[in-house]
């Protein structure tokens, strides 16, 4: 629930050390690298927190909607991105709410393990529906278990890849594992091309 994050941000303005953590810096570098040189017409970042990754994604997007459930985090993100008029920061509780399509980039970074399994599955379906053919869903998550979280990072990625392997319009394009986190990139294909494909290592 959003009250969990209200408590977290009441205790610290940067509770996960997004600005200073070597772990966060590594995941951000991997996230941007996974996108290659591509630019995106309209991106959607779920769980933007204080906006550190948002600035990096903004450099790849013509328009970017970044959302979070916590208003104090969003205030910090708005200050951080004040010079980026193409970035919109909005309070939103995914999957109860979701960005309207068409989208060509959806980023779920360090957010999927806060959901229940049904909510994760709903979020994946909503992302799939909002993405245009050729659009991508990028997932990055911490993999060691955290007692507070409903799911593990591996659960999030395994569910997403199983969803992509069921013959729907999402297919796994690339994915890799580091010591404490995992990244997977899925692409939405045209319905006639929706046969699942194997994953490629970087």
Describe the structure concisely.
This protein is α/β, with parallel strands linked by helices. The chain contains six helices and seven strands, in the order ααβαβαββαβαββ. Helix 3 links the parallel strand 1 (about 40-45) and strand 2 (about 60-70).
Structure description:
With 202 residues, the protein is α/β, with parallel strands linked by helices. The protein contains six helices and seven strands, in the order H-H-E-H-E-H-E-E-H-E-H-E-E. Helices cover 33% and strands 27% of the residues. The chain has a seven-stranded mixed β-sheet, with helices on both faces. It is globular.
Q: Spans of 5+ residues with little confidence (pLDDT < 50)?
A: 194-202
How many whole angstroms does the radius of gyration measure?
Answer: 16 Å
Instruction: Indicate the proportion of strand residues.
Output: 25-35%
Which percent bin holds the helix content? Answer: 25-40%
- Sheet with most strands: strand arrangement: 3-2-1-4-5-7-6
Order of helices and strands: HHEHEHEEHEHEE
List keywords for this structure.
disordered C terminus; 7 strands; 7-stranded mixed β-sheet; 202 residues; alpha/beta; 27% strand
What topology emerges from the helices and strands here?
Layout: H1 2-11, H2 22-34, E1 40-46, H3 52-58, E2 61-68, H4 71-80, E3 87-91, E4 103-109, H5 117-130, E5 131-142, H6 153-164, E6 170-177, E7 181-188
Parallel strand pairs: 1-2, 1-4, 2-3, 4-5
Antiparallel strand pairs: 5-7, 6-7
Helix pairs in contact: 5-6
């Amino acid at each position: 629930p959003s009250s969990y994050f209200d408590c977290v941000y009441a205790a610290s303005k940067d509770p996960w050390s997004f600005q200073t953590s070597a772990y966060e810096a590594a995941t951000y570098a991997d996230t941007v690298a996974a996108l290659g040189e591509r630019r995106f017409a309209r991106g959607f970042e779920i769980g933007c927190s204080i906006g550190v990754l948002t600035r990096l994604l903004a450099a790849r997007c013509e328009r970017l909607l970044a959302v979070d459930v916590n208003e104090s985090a969003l205030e910090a993100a708005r200050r951080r991105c004040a010079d980026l008029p193409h970035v919109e920061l909005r309070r939103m509780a995914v999957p109860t709410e979701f960005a309207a399509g068409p989208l060509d980039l959806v980023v779920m970074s360090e957010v999927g393990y806060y959901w229940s399994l049904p909510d994760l599955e709903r979020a994946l379906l909503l992302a799939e529906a909002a993405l245009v053919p050729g659009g991508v869903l990028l997932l990055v998550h911490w993999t060691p278990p955290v007692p507070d979280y409903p799911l593990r990072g591996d659960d999030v990625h395994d569910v997403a890849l199983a969803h992509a392997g069921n013959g729907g319009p999402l297919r796994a394009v690339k994915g890799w594992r580091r010591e404490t986190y995992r990244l997977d990139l899925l692409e939405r294909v045209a319905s006639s091309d929706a046969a699942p494909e194997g994953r490629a290592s970087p």
